[in-house]
Amino acid sequence: MLLQLLRPTWIKIIFLAEWLIFILITWFQGGLDSRRQALIAAYPLLFFYAIGGVFEIVSRKTRQIARGWRLLLTAVGLALFDHAIKLWVATFIPYRTARPLIPGWLNLAHNCNFQGSWVFSQLDVPAVNLIPLSITAFFMLSCSWFGHRYYVACQRTSLWADVAFLSVFAGLLSWLIEMPLRGHIVDFLCLPNMVTADLKDIYLTIGIAAIFVETLDNPGLSRSWQGGRQELVNLTQLAKDVVAFSRQDLRDSWRKLTRQNNLEG
User: Which of 1, 184, 224, 228 has the maximal Cβ count within 10 Å?
Assistant: First the structure.
């Protein structure tokens, strides 16, 4: 088991990709001005490598985390767990202060991010209008649910598809719970003198990696470029198929719920 976890694979490399890009951006911005700062930036790679390794091992034993509403409730639980920590932090840690979790390497902090994401704050992206951004996030949240159900029904059952849905849905839901109501994000996981993030950011990093893994791992998906016009036609047809499937899925769910209520009544 330990050898399987440590052995390099393309899946684990994909889980490292986003953080490696972050390290490069930080380096270009002059944020890695000492050996210690470079080590602080690099050690989270061990975390994402281990996460990718664990999921890879589990994917060989099962193709599914949970079904239907259980999967959805798990995603909601992950989002609420993020906010439970934020509530504790906002209550017991003064604003713009930190407590060491791993002295010198990782702090539990209380910071406010008005840009909505550690990526945006790192790139100095200005704050945007919350209304269109919230509508976009809600649309993506709905697409993640119906898109996952469509994929499982029409493509294949896959642990990577479940991980992608759980992580993306939990991250988007966490953002939607907080940003429109507070106007900012409470970030609490702090790499000293580098960046402060929350669980939402980790969820989305894992979710994006899982999407890439599933795309490359599923032999039934075409990965060849067919030209801009044909790709647009394919994308339009896919959107129509997902919408048609979602409508039928909602009808079936409503009929099942109605039938169950009639039997109980």
Answer: 184
Q: Which of 160, 199, 194 is nearest to 80 (CA)?
A: 199
What does the DSSP assignment read for 19-44? HHHHHHHHHHTT---SHHHHHHHHTH
Q: In what order do the strands lie in the sheet with 106-113?
A: 98-102, 106-113, 185-191, 195-197
Structure tokens at 155: 């493509």
Helix (H) / strand (E) containing 127: none
Q: Do residues 137 and 175 lie in contact, with contact meaning Cβ atoms separated by under 8 Å?
A: yes
Residue partners of 127: CB distance under 8 A and separation at least 6: 114, 115, 116
Q: What predicted TM-score, i.e. pTM, was given to this entire model?
A: 0.92
71 and 162 in contact (C-beta within 8 Å)? yes
Largest CA distance in the chain: 70
Q: Tell me the per-residue pLDDT of 63-105, one tens digit each, with 9 for 90 and over.
A: 999 988 899 999 999 999 999 999 999 999 999 999 999 999 9
DSSP structural state of residue 125: P
In which band, very low, low, confident or very high, does the pLDDT at 134 lie, cut at 50, 70 and 90?
confident
Question: How far is 48 from 41, CA to CA, in rounded Å?
Answer: 13
pLDDT number for residue 4: 80
For 40, the token pair is 């602080």
Name every residue whose Cβ is closer than 8 Å to that of residue 198 and which is 6 or more positions away in sequence.
82, 85, 86, 118, 174, 185, 186, 187, 188, 189
Residue-range domain boundaries for the chain: 2-217, 226-253
List, for residues 24-45, the tens digit of each pLDDT value: 988 988 888 899 999 999 999 9
With beta carbons less than 8 A apart as the criterion, state whether 245 and 149 touch. Answer: yes
Distance in angstroms (rounded) separating the CA atoms of residues 95 and 191? 16
